[in-house]
């Protein structure tokens, strides 16, 4: 065998050096070139015996070697963790027998698995979400094994147009869950590439960051909306409910005698359905009585413009269309804020119950399915004026 070929073989073996223990590292020769240990195909962790420092190496899409000094690594475990994280941010280098394909292929596998498990409703929701946020985006046609965190972040940034951070985070979590499941089923890719930190929650950033629409703004949105969407938003106005609670309400949930409606909300892991009775105003009772008239108890109270039960994200599209339609003709402060959503109708109802109608926070929390902590955190500013007025009227003893 030629000398150069033998030298190449021994050099390759040297690249597979064991760096895991201090004893093994002490046996390495001191040299300028690091000793390398392969992590995955194209990804390496290196150790310079001369200076006892760590370095990561990655082979990028163009076939070029890229290096990254791990200056903060104090030991092997920390260096390996940092190297894997950095290589994941550069792209996937997983090498094993498996399924090669695009992000779309992986998610279609996920949806197929859900159907095979008899989870058709979850599969339908996953498909609806993919159609809404991903299938028309370039990310869908990117090879899963080539995906980087930067690809994921850029896709998320495109999602933020017209959506609140909370909504974007939900979209991202659902896609990540699908990719994780597809990866476990054999699709080649690196899970670290699609794990990104969530965006700051809109409501948790500041009590003022939630968008509270005025009555005039809400009427403008409903006037510009399709009739099914208008009815959907009115139902939220009368109850202060979450959009998802209205979407699953049935004719049998309406208590015509008591002037009330039963609403259900999933919460916790595993999800538990929590039901509550919401008492309605006179106009609200008439509204829901008309919706339930002539329908069998299991029938949905409201249907979308396509005469189907409201899907998980259908109302988001409908309200954005209505806002865009209104804003085309409006100018200045008459324009609807970009981040307004169906939840803005819920926020408005809660604030008006507290501020305008003076209903106590405990009752408001029970009726709208929220908590006193949330009332205190986000809505106290609507209680304060009425509270001050009542305190001013008290004739305290001197």
Molecular structure report:
The protein has about 400 residues and is α+β, with helices and mostly antiparallel strands. It folds into 3 domains: about 80 residues, 2-Layer Sandwich (Double Stranded RNA Binding Domain); about 100 residues, Orthogonal Bundle (DNA polymerase, domain 1); about 180 residues, hpI Integrase, Chain A, CATH 1.10.443.10. It has 16 helices and 7 strands. Strands 1-2-3-4 form a 4-stranded antiparallel sheet, covered by helices on one side. Strands 5-6-7 form a 3-stranded antiparallel sheet. The longest helix is centred in the last third of the chain and has 21 residues. The radius of gyration is 29 Å and the shape is elongated. About 5% of the residues have low confidence.
Summarize the model shown.
With 398 residues, the chain is of the alpha+beta class. It contains 16 helices and seven strands.
Total strands: the figure is 7
Shape: elongated
Spatial ordering of strands, largest sheet? 1-2-3-4
Spans of at least 5 consecutive residues whose pLDDT stays below 50 are 5-14, 93-97, 202-209
Structural class: alpha+beta
Helix-strand layout with pairing:
Layout: H1 3-14, H2 22-26, E1 35-40, E2 43-48, E3 53-59, E4 65-69, H3 76-90, H4 103-116, H5 120-133, H6 149-159, H7 165-184, H8 202-205, H9 215-224, H10 227-239, H11 243-247, E5 254-255, E6 260-267, E7 272-279, H12 282-292, H13 314-329, H14 342-355, H15 361-368, H16 372-392
Antiparallel strand pairs: 1-2, 2-3, 3-4, 5-6, 6-7
Helix pairs in contact: 4-5, 4-7, 5-7, 9-10, 9-13, 10-14, 14-16
């Amino acid at each position: 065998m030629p000398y150069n070929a033998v030298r190449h073989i021994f050099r390759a073996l040297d690249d597979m050096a064991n760096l895991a223990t201090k004893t093994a590292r002490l046996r390495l020769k001191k040299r300028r070139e690091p000793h390398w240990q392969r992590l995955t195909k194209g990804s390496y962790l290196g150790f310079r015996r001369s200076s006892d420092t760590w370095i990561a190496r990655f082979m990028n899409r163009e076939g070029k070697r890229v290096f990254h000094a791990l200056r903060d690594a104090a030991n092997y475990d920390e260096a390996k963790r940092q190297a894997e994280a950095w290589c994941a941010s550069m792209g996937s280098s997983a090498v094993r027998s498996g399924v090669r394909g695009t992000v779309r292929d992986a998610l279609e596998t996920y949806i197929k698995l859900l159907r095979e498990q008899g989870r058709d409703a979850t599969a339908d929701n996953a498909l609806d979400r993919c159609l809404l946020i991903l299938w028309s985006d370039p990310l869908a046609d990117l090879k899963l094994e080539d995906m980087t965190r930067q690809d994921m972040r850029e896709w998320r940034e495109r999602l933020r147009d017209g959506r609140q951070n909370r909504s974007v985070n939900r979209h991202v979590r659902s896609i990540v869950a699908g990719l994780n499941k597809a990866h476990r089923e054999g699709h080649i890719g690196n899970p670290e590439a699609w794990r990104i930190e969530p965006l700051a929650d809109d409501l948790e950033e500041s009590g003022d960051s939630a968008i509270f629409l005025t009555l005039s703004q809400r009427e403008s949105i409903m006037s510009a909306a399709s009739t099914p969407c208008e009815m959907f938003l009115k139902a939220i106005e009368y109850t202060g409910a979450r959009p998802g609670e209205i979407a699953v309400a049935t004719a049998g949930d309406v208590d015509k005698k008591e002037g009330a409606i039963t609403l259900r909300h999933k919460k916790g892991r595993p999800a538990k359905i929590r039901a509550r009775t919401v008492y309605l105003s006179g106009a609200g009772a008439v509204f829901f009585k008309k919706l339930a008239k002539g329908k069998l108890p299991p029938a949905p109270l409201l249907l979308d413009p396509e005469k189907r039960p409201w899907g998980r994200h259908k109302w988001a599209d409908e309200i954005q269309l209505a806002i865009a339609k209104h804003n085309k003709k409006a100018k200045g402060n008459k324009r609807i804020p970009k981040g307004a959503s169906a939840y803005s109708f819920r926020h408005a109802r809660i604030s008006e119950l507290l501020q305008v109608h003076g209903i106590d926070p405990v009752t408001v929390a029970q009726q709208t399915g929220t908590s006193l902590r949330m009332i205190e955190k986000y809505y106290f500013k609507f209680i304060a004026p009425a509270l001050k007025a009542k305190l001013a009227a008290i004739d305290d003893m001197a």
